[in-house]
Amino acid sequence: MSQTTEKPFQIGDIVMDNRVVLAPMAGICNSAFRLTVKEFGAGLVYAEMISDKGIVSKNEKTLGMLYIDERENPLSLQIFGGDKTTLVEAAKYVDENTTADIIDINMGCPVNKIIKCEAGARLLLDPNKVYEMVAAVVDAVKKPVSVKMRIGWDDEHVFAVENAQAVERAGASAVAVHGRTRVQMYEGKANWDIIRQVKENVNIPVLGNGDVESPQDAKRMLDTTGVDAVMIGRAALGNPWMIYRTVQYLETGELKDEPGVREKMDVCLLHFERLMQLKGESVAVREMRKHASWYLKGIRGNGKARSAINQTETATELRAILNGIVQEYEQRESEIYVPEQKEIII
Ligand SMILES: Cc1cc2nc3c(=O)[nH]c(=O)nc-3n(C[C@H](O)[C@H](O)[C@H](O)COP(=O)(O)O)c2cc1C
């Protein structure tokens, strides 16, 4: 499938450069991470889910989550809520007060706190409710609206096609489908066959999501399901190269090398500096602990550095540890790089 001859991936009037999309991830997809991933070529980035009630009540922390750097667009901003009135009000706020290109409604979050509010994956049990919520938001805003959903609640309640058709009928411009049920949480395998069925039964663009772990997986997802774009979540954690390598692979068929240690640590540091600007030193250092350990994946002998990172409280210490990893690696470089094992030894 040649990428150049196909019609571009488009949601409403927003045209993307390619079909590789960063998934929304709570606690991860803030502006610092999104911009970093964007620079690795993502066609579209999703922001982490944001509470409708937090927006409507103008909660300071929630409003801070709406920050978008102008270099990130096109960007989809995801809201969640189980009450139509507040969902619509929050969508209007996002429509009028942010530079997001697309407003996405979360219908996939499996956690109890969200389900109890009739939000997230709870909505998947009732296609009529899906229609009602989406139609109300579409009517209230100018920006294109999309939905990200799971395939269903449990094996007995897989209403993926009905729900996606309700989303389309309600006037939404796209639907993203994660091929798991709510009950599966993140266990088992994502069901790409149901994603294919959704694609065959709606006319709006469909984004396929779940278990895309390599550029080859992304191509397989596009080829076997016919979706308009692939959405990548966990494989991009500490690994924006996954996005770059996937874009390259889809466009040219070439599989680019994995990054080396210096490159990994340089990007980790850049991500950290951005997080510092966004959230200040103390929060950024704590949040960066999990990211740093993801960036360190594949570097053998990283145990010492990981535990040091988990105890660090200051930016100076964190920078020193990350730079130390590069120095240690470069001293021993000649003996050690083993690309076939996808592992770098320090
Ligand atoms: C840490 C984490 C946070 C997530 N937060 C969100 C979220 O805010 N909104 C959402 O729709 N999905 C969320 N998801 C689900 C992902 O967007 C995606 O559907 C899921 O991880 C499957 O894709 P993957 O196999 O590429 O990771 C989250 C997943 C993870 C791992």
UniProtKB/TrEMBL annotation:
Catalytic residues in the record: 109
Signal peptide: none
EC number assigned by the record: 1.3.1.-
SUPFAM superfamilies: FMN-linked oxidoreductases
InterPro entries reported in the protein's UniProt record: Aldolase_TIM (IPR013785), DUS-like_FMN-bd (IPR035587), DUS_fam (IPR001269), DusB-like (IPR004652), tRNA-dHydroUridine_Synthase_C (IPR024036), tRNA_hU_synthase_CS (IPR018517)
Keyword terms: Flavoprotein, FMN, NADP, Nucleotide-binding, Oxidoreductase, RNA-binding, tRNA processing, tRNA-binding
A GO MF label: flavin adenine dinucleotide binding
CDD domains from the UniProt entry: DUS_like_FMN
Catalysis: reaction(s): a 5,6-dihydrouridine in tRNA + NADP(+) = a uridine in tRNA + NADPH + H(+); a 5,6-dihydrouridine in tRNA + NAD(+) = a uridine in tRNA + NADH + H(+)
Chain residues that bind FMN: 24-26, 78, 148, 178, 233-234
Required cofactor names: FMN
The DUS-like FMN-binding domain, residue ranges: 22-322
Tagged with keyword NADP: yes
A Pfam family that the UniProt record links to this protein: Dus
Presence of keyword Transcription: no
Function: Catalyzes the synthesis of 5,6-dihydrouridine (D), a modified base found in the D-loop of most tRNAs, via the reduction of the C5-C6 double bond in target uridines.
Family (UniProt): Belongs to the dus family.
The protein, known as: tRNA-dihydrouridine synthase
Organism from which the protein derives: Lysinibacillus sphaericus
